[in-house]
Amino acid sequence: MVHTKVPPGTAEHGTGSEAGGRSGRPRAPMGRRGRITAPSGPGRMAALLVSPTLLVLSIVVLYPTIMALRESLYGPKGLDPATGFIRTTEPFVGLRNYADILGAAGDRFWNAFWNTTFFTVVTVGLETLIGVAMALIMHKAFRGRALVRAGILIPWAVPTAISGLLWRWIFNSNGVANAIIGHQILWTTEGFHAKVAVIIAEVWKTAPFIGLLVLAGLQVIPKEVYEAARIDGAGPLGQFWHITLPLVKPALLVAVLFRCLDALRMFDLPYILVGAQKTSVETLSMLAQNEASNVRFGPAAAYAVILFLYVFLIALGFVRLLGADVVGDRAARAASRSGRRRRATAMRVTEVPA
Q: Is the pLDDT assigned to residue 9 strictly greater than 60?
């Protein structure tokens, strides 16, 4: 009888599956190339922790969006031309509401669309410049800095309705604004001056928001960077352009993105400051509210859906084109992927038999 030498680690040597069964210990699952795969417990735990947030978002965002899309396919009750009687239910009209909005009869929509875009571009641009200046002032170390910070942030803390009433008093025919410029201007009537009044009030209120986020970005910049730049001969303008602005860019982009999304939905400030159904300042949100207040829920829902798509496309384009990384740090993710590749390569090398 021929005897063969059994190498260690085989089933006959007592360390295989039988040995594992005798020891009573569960074996870890084996992945490709014999590596031990990690259990899926952390993934299940992450899904469990995120599920309440997803549930809330589904209730307050997804469901209303679906219902608004459905409602936009129906018309008002009104008079049925076929029977001559008042309809008891809303008739299904398909895409007729969208065709009326975007067609030849949509002059009011296009006016509101351009007003919304104009207010967004101008107010966000001015707020960015003023907000960065505010952040630089609040970041400086000087006596009374806490008082200055509190004073700058007061407009952001004032409710929008109160702010609209305050600026309505300022832009009154006998108000402070006319007293300062020395001319009698009816700011809250139709005309370009109504747009100017809304822009001034909006910038005054929301510029501190950008300043606050930029200030948070400034406070994480190490002082050693500025000291090294001063040693190299960089002046204040060079330090701002080559150090401050690049390092504060992530916080600034997030602030501008939030302000763009907020400005596209502008409603309460022009509604209170100037008034409803004013061609000069009517926005898409005001137009949708006007249709809903007149019990034309189908067209109102169509306006709301178009505004939702507009805001979504602006946000998507902002993130894609300007590089606003609102999900996470790209460099950190790249470093994490590189580290995983190095570890995988090292494990493959160690698996090669001698």
A: no
Scanning 233-283, the segments in alpha helix (DSSP H) are 236-239, 245-264, 268-273
Instruction: Based on DSSP, count helices (H) and strands (E) in the chain, helices before strands.
Output: 16, 0
Could you tell me the two tokens for 351? 């698996």
Q: What is the pLDDT of residues 57-76, one digit of tens each?
A: 888 888 888 998 999 998 87
pTM of the complete model:
0.74
Distances in whole angstroms, Cα of residue 96 to Cα of each of 74, 92, 298, 302: 9, 9, 10, 10
Domain boundaries, the chain: 69-327
| End-to-end CA gap in the chain | 32
- DSSP assignment of 152-198 equals HHHHHHS-HHHHHHHHHHHTSTTSHHHHHHTS---TTSSSHHHHHHH
pLDDT at 354 over 50: no
Closest CA to 282 of 256, 273, 310, 101: 273
Beta carbons of 266 and 160 less than 8 angstroms apart: no
| Region 69-327: CATH code | 1.10.3720.10
